[in-house]
Amino acid sequence: MKTLIILAHPNLAQSTVNRRWLAELEKHPDRYTVHKLYDTYPDGKIDVAREQALVEAHDNLVFQFPVYWFNCPPLLKHWLDEVLTYGWAYGSKGKALENRKTGIAVSLGAPAEDYRADGAVGYGLAEVLRPFELTARYCHADWQPAFAFHTIDSNAGYDAAAEQLVAQSAADYLAHLEKYFG
């Protein structure tokens, strides 16, 4: 089973976590196709037919992105709005995502304890990112648990300990994909 990873990072060259995850995914081209939205559509004009065909050519679908203001980067939101059309993704004849394993892999620049009822955010990560689950379920996709990596704040610097955490996150990400999408 091959998984399509829709990678939506507006500045991948400056990324620590998503760039490392990408490097690990690219070691397994037989299992994962990584589709970099910002490289493919620098002008923001989505080729809907191409994107729908790409999704249809894969068994599973994962959206990988850094969380921005409790949401995804704008091009991914635009992709969702343009590609998940009535009659293709949902509606009485929209079956493209039906039973397709779908999930998200996110990086966050805040510690996990911030994403609790008593934390700085005041809500759990599942609550914050619920619209992605709702979208998948509305399209009758088989929603899988989210993969999340917290604590690497690009504004706080990067040291050997952080590098080790990122390396472990990449291994954990691949294990997550194997468990839920394998």
TrEMBL record:
Keywords, comma-separated and alphabetical: Oxidoreductase
Protein name as it appears in the record: NAD(P)H-dependent oxidoreductase
Coiled coil: none
Domain Flavodoxin-like fold positions: 1-175
UniProt keyword annotation of Flavoprotein present: no
Top-rank lineage group of the source organism: Bacteria
Organism expressing this protein natively: Eikenella glucosivorans
Pfam families: Flavodoxin_2
InterPro entries the UniProt entry points to: Flavodoxin_fold (IPR003680), Flavoprotein-like_sf (IPR029039), KefG/KefF (IPR046980)
Keyword Acyltransferase: no
